[in-house]
Amino acid sequence: MSLINVAGLTFSYDGSFDLIFEDVDFQIDTDWKLGLIGRNGRGKTTFLNLLRGRYEYKGVIKSSVCFDYFPYDVDDKDKYTIDVLREIAPECMDWELYREFALLKIDEEVMYRSFSSLSGGEQTKALLAALFLKQNNFMLIDEPTNHLDSEARKIVGEYLCKKKGFIVVSHDRTLLDMCVDHIISVNKADIQIQKGNFSSWYENKCRQDQMELNENHRLEKDIQRLSSSAKKTAVWSDKIEKSKYGTKNAGLKADRGYVGHRSAKMMKRSKSAEMRRQKAAEEKSKLLHNIERTEVLSVSTLINSSSRLIELNNVSLLYGEKTVCGDVNLSLRQGERLSVRGRNGSGKSSLLRLINGGGITYTGDVYKARGLKISYVPQDTSHLKGSLSEYAENLGINESIFKSVLIKMGMERAQFYKDISQFSQGQKKKVSIAGSLCEKAHIYIWDEPLNFIDIISRMQIENVLIRCRPTMVFVEHDISFCENVATKVIELKRV
């Protein structure tokens, strides 16, 4: 066991006046299993790179361990997998690799295939196996579950649960609950560490936020009351002070000593009320810095004259002469949200493109209701470019409403002046989802919409779908999201 000490960490990118981190202090035990969370754009990957010494910074990062980063870059993917893994962990024995492969449920024959021939999930698991065999290293694991199917995510979660000494960046609530014992949250104002998994952290955060909101409301009322009291007392003190000299032609003489005493007493009360008001204002200023404003989203659904919108009977999807999946039978009625599940390569994305009308070869019968309008969110966002205004115009949606939705999803206004190609992957996903929410459609087809999207935004999107009940077909590997959103499920099998 050793410690990672961070003191006074301050960092901003060259040419930027905005600080990513300012005067951050904390301590980490290298035996901990930590989940790193925070909204898109908060600097999670930047933080990992600072630990690795990739950027210059102010402050101190002190540790006796070496930091190793996942995903590992593989220079020559044509090599045998075992040779790739030996380069990563040259001191490990073959039997150790076999042991890790067994834990990750990877066939041993994978070792003697070229790395490029492995599926994305197999590559991810193989690299994790090698990285955890490196001695005296603290692992920095950056979003290992993107594009992994639900079964593979569960395997990776169980694997990480058996390990220690790592920080994992993940937006998958189920995985974090499975494998971490501490949470590092990159907040709006600071970085905090809390013992427990994501669920316990979120419960504590909601409780803390509510306490701060209640205290803030109480202090606002106190400030208003004290301000009013101080003002009234000052006015009375001024009137009493003037009365020392009596009223002109009144023929009466005031007891100036007595009146002066009353005036001073009233002034003291006024100053006391003002001091209490200032103290309340100072206390109020310490609140609400880290509260995440998750505003309510909405979606504009259309109603079709037919209650039956989609129906597939004995459909098989083909790539050339090869059948990807066969005997697919499904029906979709208004208000239903269909979750399409299956292992990678089982044809999930192809099925979504077929329903969307996108040039997929198939056999069987496909029925679509007349005049059906579909909003489609593809899995890949790498093609996105241009301004947000151009994106809204091309999609035929209201630009102001579109940008308002992005702000509600946590995007800063400064992003609006950039080309979408410069956005992070999570921000690009938010552009796609916000655009779809602004489209008026009968069916919303989303292909892995939550990849790279932060947990708070996932829960926000989840809530709007549950509340507004649009008709949907979606592929998503976030187990919590699927369980909460889907009203029906179809499982595809590879042929």
Automatic annotation (TrEMBL):
Protein name (record): ABC-F type ribosomal protection protein
Entry keyword Cell inner membrane: no
Pfam families for this protein: ABC_tran
Gene Ontology MF: a single term: ATP binding
Natural source organism: Lentihominibacter hominis
Gene: abc-f
All residue ranges annotated as the ABC transporter domain in the record: 4-213, 310-495
Keyword Nucleotide-binding: yes
Keyword terms, alphabetized: ATP-binding, Nucleotide-binding
